[in-house]
Known about the structure:
binds adenosine-5'-diphosphate, elongated, 4 domains, single chain, metal ion binding, Glucose Oxidase, domain 1, 18% strand, alpha/beta, binds magnesium ion, Dna Ligase, domain 1, eight-stranded mixed sheet, D-amino Acid Aminotransferase, Chain A, domain 1
Amino acid sequence: TKWVYGFGNGTADGKAEMRDLLGGKGANLAEMSSIGLPVPPGFTVTTEVCTYYYANSRAYPPELKAQVAAALADVEKIVGRKFGDPDNPLLVSVRSGARASMPGMMDTVLNLGLNDTTVLGLVRSSGDERFAYDSYRRFIQMYCNVVLEIDHHNFEEVLEQKKLDLDVHLDTDLKASDWKDVIKQYKKVIERELGKPFPQDPQEQLWGAVGAVFGSWMNQRAITYRKLHDIPESWGTAVNVQAMVFGNMGDDCATGVAFTRNPSTGENLFYGEYLVNAQGEDVVAGIRTPQQLTVQGKEAQKSDRPAMEEVMPEVYGQLAEIRSTLERHYRDMQDIEFTVQSGKLYMLQTRNGKRTAKAALKIAVDMVREGLIDRKEAVTRIAPASLDQLLHPTLDPKAQRKVLAKGLPASPGAAFGKVVFTADAAEKMARDGEKVILVRRETSPEDIHGMHAAQGILTSTGGMTSHAAVVARGMGKPCVAGAGDVRIDAKAGTLTVRGTTVKAGEAITLDGSTGEVILGIVPTIQPELSGDFAELMDWADGVRTLKVRTNAETPADAATARKFGAEGIGLCRTEHMFFEGDRIVAVRQMILSDDEKGRRAALARIAPMQRQDFVELFEIMAGLPVTIRLLDPPLHEFLPKTDAEMAQVARELGVAEKEIEARAAKLHEFNPMLGHRGVRLGISYPEIYEMQARAIFEAAVEVRKKHGKTVDAEIMIPLVATKRELDLMKEVIDQVANEVGKLNGVTLDYKVGTMIELPRAALRAGEIAESAEFFSFGTNDLTQTTFGLSRDDSASFLERYQRRGIFEHDPFATLDVEGVGELIRIAHERGRRTRKDLKLGICGEHGGDPASVFFCHQVGLDYVSCSPFRVPIARLAAAQAAL
Ligand code: ADP
Ligand code: MG
Ligand code: MG
């Protein structure tokens, strides 16, 4: 087996398509090398070695040693240095790289191969003693941190003390002799912590680092990241070993990171940051504030420090050239890392850049205009769920705002919440239902859970490519980074900006699009959905076959959904209308009447209101289908709870309060979700469904008379288990339709159908379809009844079920394709066999979940129905499913 793939010198064993085997980083290093970009030579140990390693109690395949030695020899030949050579040593970096990029999850070791002897060789070959010892101490620090797992505070203390002694502030102020001193003390720390010296043998160093990379695949940070991003554990990581180039050898050296377009807005402008005389992670670590790549970027940030374009025009020119080469090659926005050694440019990484939803949209639409991709490709470029970011509110520009400070607009959107200073506090308060803003000097991968829990993130150091910025953009959370005026005292629980102090628990607002940090809570407004958004959605609509409807019962929701492109209402839950205003009084009166006469009296009070509801919905939906579900929930949900409520109902009905209490008690059920609800109510009290049907038909007549508009009403009976239940209710409905039609001299056009939310209904679908003209899969209840799992009571153990791998996803969020999905398939097949034109849709929460939308498309449903804000997500997911 080939376990090791080399690259460099204009060729490579691997290529971009081999990311499963080589990891993203390795595959793209190979690709860049073979298209002739300047990449330091190196080799990739494959992800299969990682798999092997874990399958064989952390042992390597026997051939690995020899293959690594051969690959290393190739690198030595290309650069003309030898690994471990005391005169002219080859130094390497050891870098992890999984299939999916896991930024910051696994650490890189730089300058590997240095020891007390080779450092002298580096002094001689570079002619720069300070550089050589600076590199050595960096190596020791990183190696100890990543491989030997000695806490980095130990080393920071030594360095801080040294700076104090010398009375200097910056690392760059330390001289060669100072670094030698620091190294001496570092070694003491190691002896103290480990009881043995720092490994001097370069081979031991190399294999130590390789083992650490594989080991890190199973560290807590990586496991958490995988869980959050649905990355299977089985993928494994690759290890890249690459010849070092040095950005820290003087003022004609630099290191930097860039995006080929602005990752926040999507603008087609080269966008990046760099630092002169620096190495590796210095740019993103937030230790020194980086400078801009371009003059344009410098002006946008109102920075007074020169751009790379000005400082190193020639190298910048090459980089700009590579920018367009890469975009044309990958046909996507790239996120690149580079280093300049003595005026020569080297590429160290490229990958498709993470971006905000806003940027993704603009880049996709722009690239179609530029001819880089076609419309279908553009449609596939946007993660449906990410549209969420575009649909949510921004700060009301007219609102008063007291701007506390300004940082970098690192991730757009607006959010307010209570200030917290630690990730744990963020998580805890969010669990208690609080909105929080996480405030840190800079975030690190240990803070991920807190970032997830927070509404937004504020940092006082770091740039647009800092950890906080990158991760926040990935999560779609607003982030203001590098707000330098914000002084954080986490111990005291305060942040201070020029005399104004905000304590933990007090509210601030962040505007991630402008970088503003605002005191208190600022109101927000709805987003505009035109321009690129409308265009892309148009393309999506052009390819999808699955229709998208909405779940709505209020005029406001229905109107929002229409604005978002809903093609009708898939679920109007009439019981929600029963809570409106003081209707509930009449509803209670109905429930607690002890005979039909009393119920009818109460229903007569509700009827005109219910009719008006439907008039409004029909008007908004203007001829699009509207599925109305007749009363569904257990009656006890409407019962009076307080004494005052009891008294009120007693007065209305003219009976004693005691009597009302007794009737209410009689309605108590042990398991209401499986109790007297759904069609069972219609069977017990047909007058309820009768009133609802009448309200629907009268509304339809009214809308037709008033606007000449047709109404496409679909009347849906919930919780049906047998055909007979449906038949009895259909009789009631048809009879009302007849009456209303005759009275108004019209024939009414409508459909009667049922929800499929009980396994029995799915199994008997063939028979039920004889009476039903449509099915709507109520997957919330169908999931509950298939699993025998209560949605409202499962939270306490669902987490454990997911952790133990019993459920891969929360089945109430993502449809259980295997079980619930099979019932849907069965019902689909049997139903359509009886009735070829049976209309099929889904109206559970799943209707807005992209993975579930994919499934619905595959099975061949006609439509999905979801909450208004999810409509664009479902439209895009449906388009992707069709491609
Ligand atoms: P990450 O996956 O966290 O981005 P990388 O493996 O890309 O980690 O390494 C981080 C940084 O280390 C790179 O951006 C680069 O600046 C530096 N680096 C890695 N390998 C080399 C090398 N061979 N020469 C110089 N710098 C390197
Ligand atoms: Mg990197
Ligand atoms: Mg239901």
